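User: Could you go from structure to sequence for me? I need the amino acid at each position, not a summary. Structure tokens:
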């Protein structure tokens, strides 16, 4: 393969509509350089373009199409020099050529080969009087003509734009135009930039599955992507892009937009993107909100990984929006029934409940209430026995199922106080009798002698 035939990255897309969108020929492909430990450069045959939508990846020419004699002549003539990009006005067109007025009495020609390769859409825009940028291929050939290229000018301007993005570190919004085994091909004007797999954003990678590049990347073609320019090497036709580098700015931009739209109380579908000791971050439409650990569940949670995993889809309620600090507060548990509502109505102070010991601490034991596994009550060490207790393990053990007395119900602060020593306490005798008779009357069991005490049956 000669140097004119080498597959190159970032070549211009002149044959925009005449090239099949299903595949790229070797002359179209981009040699993907190594970035951040990327595997070796994929070959030209590995590059695949979209066969969906209005793919605009087109054959890239390694140099403007001109006749051999057009390359002869001086490097500079009449104030024009080879490689210069200037703005002119289309003075006239023929079936085979386009003439461009360069000012100061100079006129250049876009030759037949390039005109023949133009798409119908581009040709329609080449009207007399229209402004156009042109690349000076030869300022003075053997016939004294100035040979120009429109497609090469557009490519050169795109290289300059890429260099500006590299310098400014601004985010470029483009479209995924194809892929190869090493990553994604992104349209950058008339150029094609390469996003290595290691530089694809985590969120996008979560959406791709499959063992082959086609399975993983084909669904991404024609999707919008925001990237930063990481490398511009015009001499080697290298244009390297990174979605990862752009994510911080993109998330901030999307968060600002989302914060303007979000309403407190609104319910959204999100995806878990990270788990921290203090809670879970959930992406709700391009921006992340925090589900604090206290908003994960009504039950006691020591770490979010007990309930969630990265990539999991969840329903969340917006509970706070702080435009000043760009923070979004979310809740999962508020979309679930609050077990305290029913518990408070059913178990008043003094009621007897069944509970399972779940945890022991130096100040007491926690018990989960039967039928309300999301609710735990505390049996303070002073409520375990009438005798002095050094440690709860001297009286109860994890897993024990016990009858317990409710001594405190604080719905506001979600606190339930329980007692083991007061289960058979005389102070609750009248209350136990009243409840026993009430239950007996509800059963309508008149033939049975009323029970003396529910407490004594436990």
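Assistant: Here is the amino acid at each position, in order:
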């Amino acid at each position: 393969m000669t140097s004119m035939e080498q597959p190159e990255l970032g070549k211009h897309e002149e044959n925009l509509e005449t090239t099949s969108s299903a595949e790229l020929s070797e002359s179209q492909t981009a040699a993907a350089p190594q970035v951040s430990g990327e595997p070796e450069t994929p070959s030209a045959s590995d590059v695949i373009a979209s066969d969906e939508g209005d793919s605009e990846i087109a054959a890239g020419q390694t140099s403007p199409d001109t006749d051999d004699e057009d390359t002869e002549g001086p490097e500079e003539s009449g104030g024009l020099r080879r490689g210069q990009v200037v703005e002119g006005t289309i003075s006239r067109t023929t079936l085979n050529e386009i003439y461009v007025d360069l000012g100061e009495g100079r006129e250049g020609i876009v030759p037949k080969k390039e005109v023949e390769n133009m798409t119908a859409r581009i040709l329609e825009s080449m009207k007399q009087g229209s402004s156009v940028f042109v690349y000076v291929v030869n300022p003075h050939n053997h016939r004294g003509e100035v040979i120009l290229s429109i497609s090469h000018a557009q490519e050169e301007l795109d290289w300059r734009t890429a260099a500006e993005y590299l310098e400014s570190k601004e985010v470029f919004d483009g479209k995924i135009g194809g892929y190869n085994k090493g990553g994604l091909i992104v349209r950058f004007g008339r150029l094609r930039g390469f996003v290595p797999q290691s530089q694809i954003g985590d969120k996008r990678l979560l959406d791709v599955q499959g063992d082959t590049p086609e399975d993983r990347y084909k669904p991404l073609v024609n999707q919008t992507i925001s990237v930063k320019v990481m490398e511009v090497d015009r001499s080697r036709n290298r244009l390297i892009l990174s979605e990862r580098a752009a994510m911080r700015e993109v998330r901030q931009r999307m968060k600002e937009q989302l914060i303007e739209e979000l309403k407190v109380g609104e319910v959204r579908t999100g995806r878990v993107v990270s788990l921290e000791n203090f809670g879970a971050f959930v992406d709700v439409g391009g921006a992340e909100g925090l589900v604090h650990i206290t908003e994960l569940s009504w039950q006691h949670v020591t770490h979010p990984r007990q309930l969630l995993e990265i990539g999991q889809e969840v329903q969340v309620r917006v509970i706070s929006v702080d435009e000043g600090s760009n923070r979004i507060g979310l809740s999962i548990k508020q979309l679930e029934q609050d077990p305290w509502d029913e518990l408070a109505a059913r178990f008043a102070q003094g009621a007897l409940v069944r509970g399972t010991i779940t945890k022991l601490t130096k100040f007491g034991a926690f018990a989960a209430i039967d039928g309300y596994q999301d609710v735990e009550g505390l049996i303070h060490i002073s409520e375990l026995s009438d005798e002095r207790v050094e440690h709860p393990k001297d009286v109860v053990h994890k897993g024990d199922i016990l009858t317990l007395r409710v001594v405190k119900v604080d719905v506001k602060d979600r606190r339930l106080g329980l007692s083991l020593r007061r289960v058979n306490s005389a102070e609750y005798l009248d209350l136990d009798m009243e409840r026993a008779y009430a239950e007996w009357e509800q059963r309508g069991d008149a033939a049975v002698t009323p029970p003396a005490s529910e407490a004594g049956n436990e």
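One structural detail worth keeping in mind: Confidence is low (pLDDT under 50) at residues 1-70, 452-458.
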